[in-house]
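#lab-general

N.A. 3:47 PM
ok so I finally got the sequence cleaned up, no stray characters, all 231 residues accounted for. can someone with queue access submit it? mine expired

B.Y. 3:52 PM
send it over

N.A. 3:53 PM
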Amino acid sequence: MTRVPRQRQQGGPGSVEALYPFLYSGTADLPAVLEEARLSTVAKAHEILGLRRQIGSRDGARLVSCARAAAARFSAGGRLLTFGNGGSATDAQQLATLFLYPGGTARPLPAIGLASDIAVLTSLSNDIGVDVVFARQIAAFGRPTDIAVGLSTSGNSPNLLRAFDEASRRGLLTVGIAGYNGGKMAELDSLDYLFVASSESIHRIQEVQTTIYHVLWELIIAELGPQQAAP
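B.Y. 4:20 PM
back already:
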């Protein structure tokens, strides 16, 4: 079994030891380790539940308003454009997939994940720069009836900031989902809606962000009503 190097075990807040101190305490008491693991899991669950309640209390009305605005765009023939970096790129793609292939009887809605085309991403990054990988795609695809949703844990990603500015300039509905205190996204005039998962933990931020975009999807579907049967 590969052992974690001692210097990594004793690292800062992002180290394995900091996340799971009970695994590196030197104890051989298995029941004690299992109890600490249980308490850690319960504490994380309480934290995420508290953050979700905070979002519902603070942003419930704005989530409804955003969903109504997005539903109006879809009704006018609009599409959803999603984007993010790293783990947020995965969330952005999952969001696009949720709209495209919701399953069950829910109506599918047009959506494009801007982080999913590796040829486009690498060519823009190589030929121009990483900062334009989403803005250039919005300039190419974006229409005034569309919706642009960008996700970032920090809220500081330059390529998201440029994408929102481009989307706003073209008349798209712009929605940001960030963490911490919103970062630079909180300073943008080009965002119509910003939802912030106020936590210092990337794990909790991403869990709450998932809740936010699932709630938005449910509200949009409810606003649009039942899908019309084909003639």
